[in-house]
TrEMBL record:
This is glucan endo-1,3-beta-D-glucosidase. It comes from the Eukaryota. Its EC number is 3.2.1.39. GO terms for molecular function: glucan endo-1,3-beta-D-glucosidase activity. Keywords: Disulfide bond, Glycosidase, Hydrolase, Signal. SUPFAM superfamilies: (Trans)glycosidases. Belongs to the glycosyl hydrolase 17 family. It comes from Rubroshorea leprosula.
């Protein structure tokens, strides 16, 4: 309300709408049926206050929808149902047929809004995506299937059983890049939502924008030298696990999670992965590959199958204007792509 007041004083109240992104767990449903949808009891008063404010300002309701989390937490929902597969068993709710999880979640929110008197509130899906690592079924192949099916569904403009021919006002794909510092409280997959890897490489093929045919890899990315930090097998490795855990506490080792891309590498390969993550995060400083004498710097890529031992990006502040840091053009790419499906 304070932000809106400030905008109004700057004569921008009608041009700039203040919105509040809400998590997918703000609304629930008994028996997983949209007709039973409602806001959580402990949040109901707050949601009514928020919706009253949004309605007065003619602003939409911003919500996150998380099909991956739904699939993980609900054993009664099949992967085919999440991925819009025609073979999926449909859900029947008061003679309304739901063929995919997205429509079911969306209409659960529609019912929750209607229950508190805001049946006509516009909805924007502020974030929806599929992770590519850190858990079972979090792979690039499954993510590609989901994103393609979601986009085709939205472009069809068929709406949902409760809002036919009235799809979300806007839908935003989560997210541009992986975030190696993102909280993993809800799961190690949280650091792998990116459509692109941290170095700007497309993880899969997808026509996210109608005007383009496919995602394009970043060009001229500047990497650190092709060096990796691995465990020295000639040393006593009895304390190696403790060193690896310490390294993972400040770096990203989520690929080692059960079902992750590096979950199948055996000991001490997983120790080497932890050492290398720490080493690259610290810009390949020689002292960051010590680990009490257990670390060894090598120029032989230790990557195994789908388990990638990454090399960090060059982040020197002395780069010339002609050598723009990759993160800069990625921001520009986001501006151009908007990652917006209307």
């Amino acid at each position: 309300m304070n932000i809106h007041t400030a905008l109004a004083r700057a004569n921008l109240g009608d041009e700039v709408k203040v919105v509040v992104p809400c998590s997918f767990d703000t609304f629930v449903s008994e028996s997983n049926l949209p007709s039973k949808g409602h806001f959580r009891t402990d949040l109901n008063r707050t949601m009514v206050e928020l919706l009253t404010f949004l309605s007065k300002q003619h602003a939409p309701f911003f919500v996150t929808i998380s099909p991956f989390t739904t699939f993980q937490e609900n054993k009664n929902v099949s992967l085919d149902f999440i991925l819009f597969k025609e073979s999926a068993h449909p859900h029947n709710d008061s003679r309304r047929i739901y063929k995919n999880s997205f429509d079911l979640s969306y209409d659960t929110l529609v019912t929750a809004l209607s229950t508190v008197g805001f049946s006509e509130m516009d909805i924007v899906v502020a974030a929806i995506g599929w992770p590519t690592d850190g858990a079972a079924n979090a792979t690039s192949a499954v993510a590609q299937t989901f994103i393609k099916a979601l986009i085709d569904h939205l472009h069809g403009k068929t709406g949902t059983p409760l809002r036919p021919r009235n799809p979300p006002t806007e839908t935003y794909i989560l997210s541009l890049l992986d975030e190696d510092q993102r909280s993993i409280t809800s799961g190690n997959f949280e650091r792998h939502w990116g459509v692109f890897t941290f170095d700007g490489q497309a993880k899969y093929h997808a026509n996210i924008i109608q005007s383009s045919k496919d995602l394009v890899n970043a060009q001229n990315v500047e990497y650190l030298p092709s060096k990796w930090c691995v465990v020295n097998n000639n040393k006593d490795l009895s304390n190696a696990t403790a060193s690896a855990l310490e390294a993972c506490s400040v770096s990203d080792c989520t690929a080692l999670s059960p079902g992750g891309s590096c979950s199948n590498i055996s000991w001490p390969g997983n120790i080497s992965y932890a050492f290398n993550s720490y080493y690259q995060q610290h810009d390949q400083r020689s002292d960051s590959c010590d680990f009490g004498g257990l670390g060894l710097i090598t120029t032989v890529d230790p990557s195994v199958d789908s388990c990638r031992f990454f090399v960090g990006l060059r982040t020197s502040h002395s780069a010339s204007l002609q050598a723009v840091h990759p993160s800069c053009w990625l921001v520009l790419l986001l501006v151009h792509m908007l990652f917006l499906v209307c």
